[in-house]
Structures are given as structure tokens and as C-alpha cells.
Specification:
single chain, 6-stranded mixed sheet, 3-stranded mixed sheet, alpha/beta, cytoplasm, Pentein, Arginine deiminase, 20 strands, 33% helix, Arg_deiminase, L-arginine/glycine Amidinotransferase, Chain A, binds citrulline, 14 helices
């Protein structure tokens, strides 16, 4: 199989200034992660814990991902790959030390083994360390010469001394740009927490990003990028559910208000279950004043608008119907919902398969999974161009094109929108 992605990315340059103030402004630069060795770690015994619903065929997942990257590149989008960004960052000795520190969980491994692992990882070159940080390491892969320990003797050879990170694929969740600042997510699930450390290192030490200010601290209350929608410049919606907590939404609101990045943040409660783990599993924007939305959510979603109060306080209003609160905050008459008109069973099937999880490349141009035939047909009937990609293997982690992409630069929308 050819790795087309390298030809798409080339060296990571710094010609495009980072900044994102909407969901639909023409996409200029995006961070993806081409799935690799970390997916080969998934087994029927660990897939639930690692947040995958089945065991992906890795080669096919890579092909699907390469095709996704090609669609973006074909539309003039610069595609950055997380492995490249992280690898370049890790060539800085301080990043290397931080990567080692993040990988060693002394509480779980005990002092003996933690010391042995630390010593082993410290001696790795940047590329090998990067692979280990992403794909993990089993007990049997840690050279025996690195010392004995009770923990090591009592573990199975195939257990992980460093856990793999198969959900790196979903770059949307681990970081998000808000205006010209990057928010490093504080990921909620144990299987994803170390992603926070890797993204923190990548942005802190890669020459292209190290000057970027932070919109949110990596170790603050849980907020995941899949829950954050930039409805319009200055207006954010933040899903509160299985991942992002109410404390996280409040904390993000305080942070973006303090930095002048937003005037309104809508906290949107979503059902706490796997099908709706993030707000972007039920609703994504396809135009400056239009969304595609899971039909059941349309009339049930509510919002608690937060605005800056007096003397650094937060003013919290609502709850009010989400569509009304969003339109008011965005200063438009109505936030249109593309009517997918689906029967409840088809709607539920296609929501599960990320039919509502589209990635806008520009107003009215979105990438979606080809399998969501009915949703895509309705979008096209509404005048939306749907660039359909295969996702049978990629989708086994329960994420679609929006989940698999972190926009780094979008052009601002024209004032007429
Ligand atoms: N924004 C998203 O909905 N991302 C999909 C994340 C899927 C991943 N397997 C997870 O459970 O976190």
C-alpha cells in the first residue's frame, strides 16, 4: 500500500497563520492522524476499554484515511499529520524528557519498573520514542536487561507497560483552535488521558506552534474538542455529557471570556451515552447559519447561555431551546436545520455511523461517510455538496470526518454571512 500522505504533507512549513473562528470558513490547514501501530494493539479483550466497538482492519483503515487526506488536499487544504508534528517536537531534548515523563505511570508500575522504563525510553531516538508514545509498549517489548520487578513478574507478557493510544485518530477531541489560540483538551476517559500530554508537547515544542497562546489549560476540568462548536465568531456551543463536564464548560467559558475570544458560550446538555459521546455526534454546521442534526435532538436540545457578568462573574441564563438560543447569540433570525426527514430507525442507524458528523471545507461543502446514504441524499437535496468517503474501518472507533480532523486555519467568513 502506498503511503500517499507523505506526499500530501511534505515538510511541516509555517506559511499559514493558525486561526479558526467558525465551523465553515474555507478550511486552509488541518491536523490529522494517520492510524498506525496503535490500532494493531486492539483485541477483543481490550477494545471496549480502549473505546473501539470492533477490531479494525488496520491496512484498510489506513487506505480509508489516506483517501480522506487526499480529498482534503485535493481541495487545497494543507494536511498536517500528528506523527510528523510530534516527531519534530520530540527532537527538542526538553520535549523528549516530557514525553518520557508522560509515559511512565509510577503509581501503576512501581518504583523499580518505573525507573527501568524511564531509563529505556530516555535512550530512544525521537522517532522511536514517538512510536512508543503512540503505539504503547508491552512488558515483553521492554528489554529484560532493563531490570526486574515484582510488577513485571506478575504481569502477562502482552500487558502494556505503556498503554497504546488508538483514539489519536480523533484529532478533533485532543485539541481545538478557538480564534488564534489553541485549547489542549483535558480528556475525560482514562484510555485517552495521555493524548493530552502528547498534544501539549507537540504544540509546546514544534517550531510552528510554540508561539501559540493557549485558550485552555491541559489539566483543567474535562473539555473535549468534539463538544466544542464555533457557531459564529464569538459564539461557542459546548456539549456537556459523557466527556465534557459542566465544570469544564464553565471553566472554558471563563477562559475564552477573559481572552476576548467569545461573548457567549452555550452549554448544551447531551445524553450521557456512547452514541452521543460528544455534541458533534448529533449536530455539525454545514453553512454559516445551518446545521445537520439528529432529528430526535432537534426539538429536545436546550442551552444554558453563559456571558461575562460584572466583576469577573459568569452570568448563566436558560435553559432555552438550543436553536433559539443559538440564533439569538449568533445575531441571526434562525439557525436552519437541514431536514434529513429520516424515519426514526434510519435516523438512529445513521447517527450511530456518524451521519451528523460532517466536516465543512467551506460553506455548503462537507465531507461525510458514504455509508450514510439517506442523510447524504437529504443534504444534497438541500444544495450541499457532500464529498463522500469510505469509513467502514475508521468508523469502528465511533467517529466521523469532523472527529478525525482538527482545523488549524480557516479563512474568516465574508461579512455578508
Ligand atoms: N468527536 C467525536 O465524537 N470523536 C469520536 C471519538 C471516538 C473515540 N473512540 C472515543 O470514544 O473517544
Amino acid at each position: 500500500m502506498t503511503n500517499t500522505v507523505n506526499t500530501i504533507t511534505g515538510p511541516v512549513t509555517d506559511t499559514i497563520t493558525p486561526g479558526v473562528d467558525s465551523e465553515v470558513g474555507p478550511l486552509r490547514s488541518v491536523l490529522l492522524h494517520r492510524p498506525g501501530g496503535e490500532l494493531t494493539r486492539l483485541t477483543p479483550r481490550n477494545n471496549d476499554q480502549l473505546l473501539f466497538d470492533s477490531i479494525p482492519w488496520v491496512g484498510r483503515a489506513q487506505e480509508e484515511h489516506d483517501a480522506f487526506a487526499e480529498v482534503l488536499a485535493g481541495r487545497g487544504v494543507e494536511v498536517l499529520l500528528l506523527a510528523d508534528v510530534l516527531g519534530e517536537a520530540l527532537s527538542d531534548p526538553r520535549a523528549h524528557a516530557a514525553g518520557v515523563h508522560a509515559a511512565v505511570d509510577e503509581r501503576r508500575l512501581g518504583t523499580e519498573l518505573a525507573d527501568a522504563l524511564r531509563s529505556h525510553l530516555s535512550g530512544l531516538d525521537a522517532d522511536t520514542l514517538r512510536e512508543t508514545l503512540m503505539s504503547g509498549m508491552t512488558f515483553e517489548e521492554l528489554p529484560a536487561s532493563e531490570g526486574a520487578s515484582l510488577v513485571r513478574r506478575m504481569h502477562h507478557a502482552h500487558d502494556f507497560v505503556v498503554d497504546p493510544l488508538p483514539n489519536l485518530l480523533f484529532t478533533r477531541d485532543s485539541s481545538a483552535w478557538i480564534g488564534d489560540r489553541v485549547a489542549i483538551s483535558s480528556l475525560a476517559m482514562p484510555a485517552r488521558r495521555r493524548e493530552t500530554e502528547l498534544l501539549d508537547i507537540a504544540y509546546a515544542y514544534h517550531p510552528r506552534f510554540r508561539a501559540a497562546s493557549r485558550a485552555y489549560g491541559a489539566h483543567s476540568a474535562p473539555v473535549e474538542g468534539g463538544d466544542v462548536l464555533l457557531l459564529a465568531p464569538g459564539v461557542l456551543a459546548v456539549g456537556v455529557g459523557e466527556r465534557t463536564t459542566a465544570a469544564g464548560a464553565e471553566s472554558l467559558a471563563r477562559s475564552v471570556f477573559a481572552d476576548g475570544l467569545a461573548h457567549t458560550v452555550l452549554a448544551v446538555p447531551i445524553a450521557q451515552n456512547r452514541a452521543t459521546m460528544h455534541l458533534d455526534t448529533v449536530c455539525t454546521m454545514i453553512g454559516p447559519d445551518a446545521v445537520v442534526m439528529y432529528p430526535l435532538a432537534r426539538d429536545s436540545l436546550v442551552a444554558y447561555p453563559m456571558r461575562p457578568g460584572d466583576d469577573g462573574t459568569l452570568r448563566v441564563d436558560g435553559p432555552s431551546p438550543f436553536l433559539d438560543a443559538a440564533a439569538e447569540a449568533m445575531g441571526i433570525d434562525r439557525l436552519h436545520v437541514i431536514d434529513t426527514g429520516l424515519d426514526p430507525v434510519t435516523a438512529e442507524r445513521e447517527q450511530w455511523d456518524d451521519g451528523n458528523n460532517t466536516l465543512a471545507l467551506a460553506p455548503d461543502v462537507v465531507v461525510g461517510y458514504e455509508r450514510n446514504v439517506e442523510t447524504n441524499a437529504r443534504l444534497e437535496e438541500a444544495g450541499i455538496e457532500v464529498l463522500a468517503i469510505a469509513g467502514s474501518e475508521l468508523g469502528s472507533g465511533r467517529g466521523g470526518p469532523r472527529c478525525m480532523s482538527c482545523p488549524i486555519a480557516r479563512d474568516p467568513l465574508p461579512a455578508t454571512h
